[in-house]
Amino acid sequence: MPQLASGRYVEIMSERARFHARRKNIQVTESMSHKALYPLIDIMVDATNNSLGCRSCTTFSGYTLADHDWLSQWEEADRHDFEKWLGEESQVRTIEKARSRLLVDPRTIKEEMHPYPQQLYSLLKLRLMELPMRRATVEQWRRTLLNMKRDGIRREELDWSGVNQFLFNQDDSAYLTKDELLAAIDFSHIELQLCNELECDVECHLPFNEIAQRIPGTQLQISGYPVNDEDVGVVRYRSSSPSYRVGSIRTGGRALLSNEQPRWFVLGPFGNIITTEKREAYFFDSSDAARRAAIQHARKSNRLQPELIYSQPYEYMTLHGGDDYREWLVTLPNYHRSHFTAHYYERNVLLHIRTKIRKSVEGYRVLFIEELQSDWQQAVAQNGLSSGIPLAPFRKEWASLALKLMLMHVAKTGLDGIAWTNSKVHEMRYERSMNPLERLYDQQIPQTLNNIGRAWKTEVQTGEFNSRSPWLHAARCDECWKVEGGAGKFSTRPRYNKQQAQELIVRHSKELTLSLPMMLLPDAMKREINVNGLPLFGEQLQVKF
Question: Beta-carbon neighbour count of residue 420 at 10 Å?
């Protein structure tokens, strides 16, 4: 990280190249110039000129290398140093990583944004609005806020609202109106976004199934193929939607002789002939060539539409069974500092949630939390603020915040309730005691949900879920997968694809029924959540019956 002439530290990063390409509709190719990659490269700065010179000390500038207007605001000496630094070999490699990231992984990423964070209300603001007094001294307002804290308003809400700092800047004897105090409350800097990442494979393929279906030569003649009446076609691959058939010709119905050239054909959705690209021949010399022609035809005719699916990079780390797997990201896009985690490329991921929809033995359809984690808060707890990791809001509230957002999803989608893995499941998977997970999954989550559900006299109970023993899990090694588990008792070589690894796990894991924590939501609770939302901080609800 260089220090420019003015003392400013700067850094560049290519980790978010795919996100910039998505938002700016940039298609990266091998032939595009080096400078054409500039819109994909973030600029990080350290306005405090921190002498540590580490990336975690820098602030996301909000600009890329292509933002010349912003760079023109720098001093000439800074621009000269920066441009010289960009030309160094290490920086060229960093910029070129944007190309390699997008060429190696051609998927495009989209985001499904959810409105749930906008339904989180400030209990502090509501309490102030209900106060009868309209005007008081600064000291009186301080005592009022202190009483509110004793009555359930969380300290974090007071700190992040800005109201404490506002009062600190005023004279103790000065008078302020309630409206002035309300106007000082501002949570915009910690505004939340909740999204699911969606993937779209730009090189989408036809979903072929292997079959063995005979077609008489006369039927192929009707389609236009130059075959004899005694010839027989055998369809070996078929796609259901759109409908394409790939097969081979058996001359006279007999098997292919060793000296004969194979003849593969392709029939389109209406039984029409799909020829080679230059329309020079009716037949293909291999099944692969025939299938490629079918895919190419489907793309050109717009019959093959890329399907968006929820991004599933960590789906393999779930209990067997269930459906509709999703990874939820809660981010702080307007936060003044920047933090990047090892799990996701997005900036300022406050926490992530991995869920499935499961049906309990009792018949309840629930949103099932496979994992709830905040890499950011965990990094601060393990390394301390002196490491340069920026302090994040919701330090004690992040798990509660995640649960409230998921309760909103349950209420909106009409699910019966919410359930989750307890610490025993994680201990079964890793065969070791995990005290932090026990505190989170067995204590903190049930307590939070019980606090929220108390107004409707609902609480955490136990549900039964059919699954398989979680003692094995898949692990990625470059482009291959392996299966391991049992604290080293089971391990394979990295030679499988993802599906094969999951199938291996099923074969070596016994069926079992797990008793797991679950809370059902009464209809009245769902209606209240849908109409009035839930508090941004804490679990003390503003519910009026």
Answer: 27
C-alpha to C-alpha distances, 232 to 104, 186, 243, 275, 461, nearest whole angstrom: 42, 76, 20, 19, 63
Whether 525 and 416 map to the same domain: the answer is yes
The reply to whether 392 and 415 lie within a common domain is: yes
Q: DSSP states of 134-194 as a string?
A: -EEEHHHHHHHHHHHHHTT--HHHHHHHSHHHHHHTS-TT-EEEHHHHHHH---GGG--EE
With tokens 């960590």, the residue in question is: 314
427 within a domain of the structure (yes/no): yes
Residue 480 lies in a domain: no
347: its two tokens: 């900036």
Return all residues near 264 (Cβ < 8 A) that are at least 6 apart.
Answer: 246, 247, 248, 249, 283, 284, 285, 286, 287, 289, 290
Rounded Cα–Cα distance for residues 231 and 218 (Å): 8
326 lies in some domain: yes
Residue 315 maps to a domain:
yes
Write down the mean pLDDT value for the chain.
Answer: 88
One domain for residues 289 and 399: no
Domain range for 406 is 310-471+509-533
Residue 415 has pLDDT above 90, yes or no: yes
| The model's pTM | 0.72
